[in-house]
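Consider the tokenized backbone below.
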């Protein structure tokens, strides 16, 4: 059996067996969200929404083979 976490790294470190986890680019997500919000506010009704996909990173630890 393999177990992985999507939670923050600080929580993962508390596990008895170090859990593999998925690291999200949270700082980049935050900056991008603010940028989109400011552009939408400036663009008004003419603002075109866009889809942005962020690449997560798999951090392999002892909980997965």
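A designed sequence for it:
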């Amino acid at each position: 059996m393999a177990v992985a976490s999507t939670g923050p790294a600080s929580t993962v470190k508390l596990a008895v067996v170090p859990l593999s986890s998925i690291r999200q680019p949270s700082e980049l997500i935050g900056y991008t969200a603010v940028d989109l919000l400011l552009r939408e506010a400036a663009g008004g009704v003419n603002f075109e929404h866009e889809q942005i996909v962020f690449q997560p990173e798999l951090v392999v630890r002892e909980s997965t083979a």
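DSSP finds two helices and three strands in the chain.
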